[in-house]
Amino acid sequence: MVAFKEYEVVYGLGYRKSALITGGRIVAFPCLQRWRRMSLNVMTLRVTSSEVYTSQGVPLTVSGVAQVKVSTQHPDILERACEHFLRKSTVQIEALVTATLEGHQRAILGTMSVEDIYKNRKLFNSRVFEVASKDLCNLGLQVLSYTIRDISDDVGYLKALGMSRTAEVQRDARIGEALYLKQESHNPDRRLPLRIASMKAIVIDQCI
């Protein structure tokens, strides 16, 4: 009995092409034919690229998570998967797929700036997903998802970038507050409350 989450592949005498069965039964003769099973379960893989230089020459370490499975979208694609992975263990398949994904992740890192990777993760995700999907499809696999999880560096570039962004937000907040107070000061109905608020602030500062 073949479960729905796996394929039974029967080959040998009587088959011009391997028979692919899922969720059913098939008769095989041990002396004349052979059979193997291939899992259709989703593989969740952690993909880490260490100290890869971006387009600016800044070394980044990036970790992503991808979900990949044997493709069942078309019989020809499934046959490719059988050709490449039928005699490999799950551990071997995961190692090969992870290495392939890491290569694409590394390549995309080299084409983008730190700012683009840090601020526009969706763009990075889509680029890795696109190139990896095409490559792994040739092996009979389907990439279901890819998401960048963590970005780090050992040279302090990301920390400086975060501090710069915080300073920009604080500056914009001060400018907005100044413009608001300027507009309100021209409103006669608001002048007295503003003076009172200002005096209260002075008193509080003196008390402190």
Automatic annotation (TrEMBL):
GO terms for cellular component: cytoplasmic vesicle; flotillin complex
Domain of life: Eukaryota
Residues of the Band domain: 2-165
Keyword list, A-Z: Membrane
GO molecular function terms noted in the UniProt entry: protease binding
Any Pfam family hit: Band_7
The family this protein is said to belong to: Belongs to the band 7/mec-2 family. Flotillin subfamily.
Name of protein: Putative Flotillin-1
Classification lineage: Eukaryota, Metazoa, Ecdysozoa, Arthropoda, Crustacea
